[in-house]
Each structure stands twice: as structure tokens, then as C-alpha cells.
Amino acid sequence: MAPPRNVVKIAVQMPDAIPQLIQLDQAKPLAAVLKEVCDAWSLVHAESYALQFADGHRRYITENNRTEIKNGSILCLSTAPDLEAERLLGGLQSGSRERRRETLQHLVSLAPDVTFAQEVISRDGLQKLGTIIEDGDDLGEVLTLALRAFLELMEHGMVSWETLSIPFVRKVVCYVNMNLMDAWVQPLALRLLESVTLSSPALGQLVKSEVPLDRLLVHLQVMNQQLQTKAMALLTALLQGASPTERKHMLDYLWQRNLRQFIYKNIIHSAAPLGDEMAHHLYVLQALTLGLLEPRMRTPLDPYSQEQREQLQALRQAAFESEGESLGTGLSADRRHSLCAREFRKLGFSNSNPAQDLERVPPGLLALDNMLYFSRHAPSAYSRFVLENSSREDKHECPFARSSIQLTVLLCELLRVGEPCSETAQDFSPMFFGQDQSFHELFCVSIQLLNKTWKEMRATQEDFDKVMQVVREQLARTLALKPSSLELFRTKVNALPYGEVLRLRQTERLHQEGTLAPPILELREKLKPELMGLIRQQRLLRLCEGTLFRKISSRRRQDKLWFCCLSPNHKVLQYGDVEEGASPPTLESLPEQLPVADIKALLTGKDCPHVREKGSGKQNKDLYELAFSVSYDHGEAEAYLNFIAPSKREFHLWTDGLSALLGSPMGSEQTRLDLEQLLTMETKLRLLELENVPIPEQPPPIPPPPTNFNFCYDCSIAEP
Which residues are in the ELMO domain (predicted)? Predict the structure, then answer.
């Protein structure tokens, strides 16, 4: 006989004792279970003991987590958490260094358990650990263990980081700033300061003022991956807690000290694999750096700013230098203004006054910055872009300014400029750390890609949005590959022309729909009858549930309700009038019945008698799509039961169900969609075990029969 569900079979062990195999009743109080276990080993004072999981972190069993005990679990009997906490905290006061070390080791092993942590914290355990850390009598293993225990207890969130004292934080800062320090102490100290910085703005300012950036750079340059990771964690925490102005100054200083180059060469391209935590901090650093572009992205061009007007003129003159030089004193002001307006239009601005194009935010002034950077750092490519498109027909020219504005918006979206940092993301781009001015350099590559794609698509002005969609896909696909350098990005993105994008789209679409190999098509055909039966069953169940329909009067007023459903034995349609707002009636309360055997045909649309009338108003046309009727014999005359479905879906469900009752095929659009969805799901389930196994186009050949069948067992021979 199987044991009840709330009884689990477990083992309980204790040092120097024979383990017990018991059946634990989860409904019995834990204290009673402990009493039985202690009695079996002749132990008194059962309240002094507790049960723990024997593996993992040896968590204490409580009423809250006892449901995690499963059949076959191994538990151990140990000292109760309150007594254990009391004993260990007493050991911290010992004058013996060895005993304090052993006590701290035990404390570290138990600290992740929330039950034990509550007991330690309630007995001022954090203060006692803080005293050991502040005293700093032993800068080796004892300090390391004390920091680990302190961090584990604080991670439970029972005590706020803001409650830490300033002297305590300053002492931890000293451990970070010391030159000769145990290799395990500084990562723990950095981790503690990171938590303080993220949780307490006031103490974060203290950490920022006490820990120089140069010191963190020293830690980053040490070939100790754990120390590098914790130093980067504190650095990103300080950057996140700084104001936008302070953050800009800090990042500018870090770049001047070649932090970018060091990260690129010694962390990203290190021989050791990059850990998940470091990847997250590099993502945060990238996001914060790109976030410096947000003010420019959110600021529209000011038409009254002399500096910005000069930048626009510089952009125009860089493209039309010879023509710009010809604007001498011989031209009138009106003529000069007209010529400038024409050249701005050649540049691809939608308005003769380019300030109107750059009033949109985003991208605001960031688009102007990108265009200026491209014109100054790639002058030949810039001139070629503008002049090449100026010489094309008006409808085929690729507008540089409009493209640059939209491309800047696109890059900001792909790189998530201005968005808050995720707490878990790790998708940083290695090429960001391999290039100064990475955003502007990426724009320079992308704008040339856009011009190339424009020509490949033979686009016109009306195709501008289509071109941008293709460019978005080209950039997104290439960025997803995480190229390690800008040159590699340029190579990969240029190897993804418009034709290749179309091919990838087609391949992905076929992959989503399922492969078209003959064996798969054959499998789908074999599955169809079973799945059509499933759909038929669902349709009939829907008819059994019934539906509220509205009656249509001669004046096309839908003012009365009636209810119709199929009997559970699928032999009778039962129906009758119901009041507005009333709940669906029971089968017994429906006065009218129509035997399914009497139904002759199903009519839909214009063939239905209740919509086959003179006039073709809009309302009448709308009813065609929802109308259906069943004809049946009523005496010697033919009668009809007329329906107007409340929705297109109900129309499909009812016509399918009635067709199934009449033995006709279910041919609605809803049936086609449901069948395709079920076929796709069932095919994928059948092919799960064949993942990454190539499926041949043709079945393997059947081998020839054997030369004899002597290996067959003759069932007619009786065994002795």
C-alpha cells in the first residue's frame, strides 16, 4: 500500500550513531518529529536540537521550508540554531587565535542560512564581527573570514547598509588602499564597499572621497581575476552613484589613464575566460559611457546659436568647397542665401533651413555631431557620398542629412542610449572598448553601409523607410555577433548585402514554419486525421456549452436574445428565448428541440433565408458574414433555424460543429489555422529527439532479405 502524500521516507544521521530510516509525516509538528528522533537515540532535551539538510549549505529545517524535504532526502541532527549562534559568538571572544579562526570558519559555513543568520544578528553578531574587522589585529585568514561572515549576514537584508558606522567604512577603505595586503582580503573589502555605495548615498560619497580612482586602476592592473572583478564592480557603483557632471569628469579621467585600452587588451582578450560578473560590469560601463550622449540626443538645435549655425555652414562647405569659394563679394545677399539653401537641400535636408530638421529629439544635436565627425574624419567618403547622390536623379538620390538623422536614432535604439542599466544584462560590445569615439566611428561605418544598401535596393525616396528597415537588420545582426573590433564589424556588415538579408529572412521564415523535407510532409499528412478529430471534438464541446444569439427583427433591430446548445449526447439542438442580462439557462429549461437527425443542410451567408431580402444596406452586408441557418423537415414543409453569430470566431465554431454533426468537412478559416498550429506543435514534439540530426530527403534503402531464415524460432516445437 502506497504511503499518504504527506509522508516522505527519509534518513536522519548523527555523528557516531546508526542512521535512522523514518517516515516523516509533514502534517506532524516539527517539534514532535524532533522528539521522536531524539528518543530513538536516547537523547534528552529535544529542544536543544534541530534538523539540517546534510548536503549543500546544511540549511536548518523549519516549518517554512520543510516542504522541500523529498523522498530519499538525508537530514542530520545538529545543535539548535540559537544555541549554535550563542556558542560561536562566545568563541569570537576567545583570546586564542586558532579558536577564533575555527569559530569564524564554522560561522561562514552557516551564515547563508536565514534561520541561523537571524539568531546571530539578534545577538549583536554583526557588531562583534565589525569589531574584529575594525581592530585589524590579524590581516590574514581571520580578517578574511570575518569579512566573509559579515558579508553573508548582510546579504540577507535584515540590516540596512546605511546603519554602518563611518569609522567602520573608513577602516575597510584602508584595507582597499593598502599596498601589501592579503590576496583574499581586498576583493572582500571591495565587495563590501560596492554594496555600501549602491545602498547608501551618504556612505557612497565617503567611499568616493576616500578611494582614489588611481587606486582602483592599480587593482584592475593586477593579474588576479577576482580582484579585477571586484575593483570593476566598485568602479561602476561609484559611476552610477555620481551626478551626470561628475560621471563625465570621472570617465574622461579614466579614458586619459588608458583604462579603455587596458580593458580591451588585458581583460576582454585575456587568456582566462571572461566571467559573467565581469561581463555585467563591462556592460554597465559601456551603458554609462554611452549615456553621456543622452544630453546631446535630447537637445534640439537652437537656430539662434552662432556656434551651431557655424557648424552647419562647415558641414555645407566641406561638401561643396569649390562652390562655397565662389560665393564671393560679387553675389548679393539674396543670391548667396538662395545658393546656400539649394546646397542644404543637396545635402539631404528636407527644409531649406536645416535647423527645422534638427529640432526633432531624439536625435537632436547628436545627429549634427555625427555628421560633423564624418565630414572631418572621413572627408573623402563624405564628399563622395554627397556628390554621388547629387548627380543622381531626384527620385533616386539618397538624402545624406535625412539618412544621418534617422540612422542616429537607429543607433541610439540598438545601443540603448539613455536607457537605465539592467541589473543582470551582460551584452556589452567588445569593439566599444577597442576604439576611441566608438559611437561616432560606428556611425561613419553605418552611413556608408546605408548608401551601399540604397544602391543595391535601387531605392527611391518612397523606399526610405524600407531601406532603414534593412539597415536596422544588417546592423542588429552584425552587432549580435559581437565583433571584437570596428574593422571586423565593417567587414562583417559589408558581407551582409541586401540579397543576403532577403535570403536569411526566407530561411528563418521556413525554419519557423517547419522544414519542408518530404519525410516531414509525410509525417504531417499522417497526423492530420488525428488532429482533425481533436478539432472536431473541441467544436462539439463548444456547441454543448451553448451560445447567446440575437434575433433580427424585420426592421433589422437586434433587440431579443435566444440561447442554443447541443445536448451532451450530440443528438438534439435545444434552444429558447432568454432575458437580457440573465445567466445561460439549463438544458431542462429550454423549451424547443431540434433533432440532429432531422437537419437536412447547413446554409451560410446570402443563402440564409433571414438575410435573403431586398435591399443591400451596409448593415445587411455585415450580417452576411455572421449568418447561418439549418434546414429541417417540419411536417411536409421545409423550415429553418436561423442564427446570427455574435462574432466571426463564433460563426466559425458553430458552422464547423454543425458540419461535423452532418458528416461534412469542416472548412472554416479557423479550422485551417487551428490545424496548422496543432500540426506545427505536434511535429516539433515528434522531432525533439532528432534535434541536430539531419533528416534525409529519401528513406534509407531496405536491405535484401537474408539467404536463409534458420535464425527464426519455431513456435511449434514444444520445450521438454
Answer: 307-479
